[in-house]
Design brief:
By secondary structure, the chain is an alpha/beta fold. The protein folds into three domains: about 5-50, Orthogonal Bundle (434 Repressor (Amino-terminal Domain)), CATH 1.10.260; about 70-170 and about 300-330, Rossmann fold, CATH 3.40.50.2300; about 175-295, Response regulator (Rossmann fold, 3-Layer(aba) Sandwich). Helices cover about 40% and strands about 15% of the residues. Helix 2 (about 20-25) crosses helix 3 (about 35-45).
């Protein structure tokens, strides 16, 4: 059986202590990069291979020794007001899922507001470190292409969605592209043939145009006459533009999220769901009986904690070299604003 070198043999070859070797092979950033690289190179030359099972056990033992039973993670928000983010049901559900999973793993999830009066990136960094917080969950921002400044080399971090463009951190997101294709397929099973999408410009940017892309791909398979162009509304556009779009393109189903489409459709005298189906793309239980797409924000929050704790156990701090993105698929939620599924050849019950 091939014998693998131990840490002391690597240390002797490298001229350092076995503790330094252990830290280097774990990628500990307290060591100089040159030292880490030299130890890693010598370990490879000697044929050292890390025992994954033993590494996981030691990580757990180190965690048990170094953090109390109720260590804390930070939930970071940067909205204009302290609780502005919580006005959206799905943001609250994300937080609830993250907090629940954190508790299961022995952590508390403490809230921090970056827009606190007098707060700076340096001050928040010092506050977090003073409280022993090294893991951060970042709530998405109210506007796309945002940036958050902190002393990132001290922290492991995961962000929700794609609104935080800098730094490029690991993130968990809704599978918006797949979700809208699921909605389009469900509408087809109910006999709708001309689905149309109505969104505000900012929300379209917040989801990185993924809903738009998913419906576009679905429509490519439709006859040209059934392809309804999307309506992306600017900040000053509203009901009059919608009415013109509806009269011109005659959609028989409307997918929407941030616009009062049910009220606009009612004003046009259209019968729901017989003449037009309505589907909310950011559905939460309080929107029932609307049909919609439930993105399962609780599952997204739990996935964020799992990704974050994995980084902490591996001692992976700072902005990652390669951004990891975890996507969570949503689920169709039936409602009275769409017709029941058709029964017939090729179509069964749900």
């Amino acid at each position: 059986m091939e014998r693998r070198p131990n840490l002391r043999e690597i240390a002797a070859k490298a001229g350092v202590s076995h503790t330094t070797v252990s830290l280097a092979l774990r990628g500990d950033r307290r060591l100089l990069p040159a030292t880490r690289r030299r130890v890693e190179k010598i370990a490879r030359q000697l044929g050292y291979r890390r025992d994954a099972a033993l590494g996981a056990l030691m990580a757990k033992l180190r965690t048990m020794r170094t953090r109390p039973a109720q260590a804390a993670l930070g939930f970071i928000t940067a909205w204009p007001t302290r609780h502005g983010w919580s006005e959206a049901a799905n943001h609250r559900r994300f937080h609830a899922g993250a907090a629940s999973r954190a508790r299961e793993l022995g952590y508390a999830l403490d809230d921090f507001w970056l827009a606190e009066p007098g707060m700076t990136a340096g001050r928040m960094t010092r506050i977090l470190l003073a409280r022993g917080i090294r893991g951060l969950v970042l709530q998405s921002l109210p506007h796309p292409r945002g940036r958050i400044a902190l002393g990132w080399r001290h922290f492991a971090a995961v962000t929700k969605g794609v609104t935080i463009a800098r730094p490029a951190l690991h993130r968990v997101i809704s599978a918006h592209y797949d979700d809208v294709r699921l909605v389009a397929a469900e509408l087809a099973r109910r006999g709708y043939r001309r689905p149309g999408l109505v969104l505000g410009t900012e929300l379209n940017d917040r989801v990185d145009c993924a809903w738009l892309a998913g419906l576009h791909v679905h429509q490519r398979a439709l006859p040209r006459g059934d392809r309804v162009p999307p309506l992306i509304l600017g900040a000053r556009q509203g009901e009059r533009v919608f009415a013109h779009w509806f009269a011109r393109h005659r959609p028989d189903a409307v997918l929407f999220s941030d616009q009062p489409v049910p009220r606009w459709v009612a004003a046009l005298g259209r019968r729901v769901p017989a003449e037009v189906g309505l589907v909310h793309l950011d559905w939460s239980p309080e929107l029932a009986p609307l049909a919609g797409l439930d993105s399962d924000p609780e599952a997204i929050g739990r996935a964020a904690i799992d990704l974050l704790v994995g980084q902490l156990h591996a001692q992976e701090y700072g902005v990652p070299r390669h951004e990891k993105i975890i996507t969570i698929k949503g689920q169709w939620r039936d409602g009275t604003t769409v017709r029941p599924r058709r029964r017939g050849r090729g179509q069964g019950s749900p």
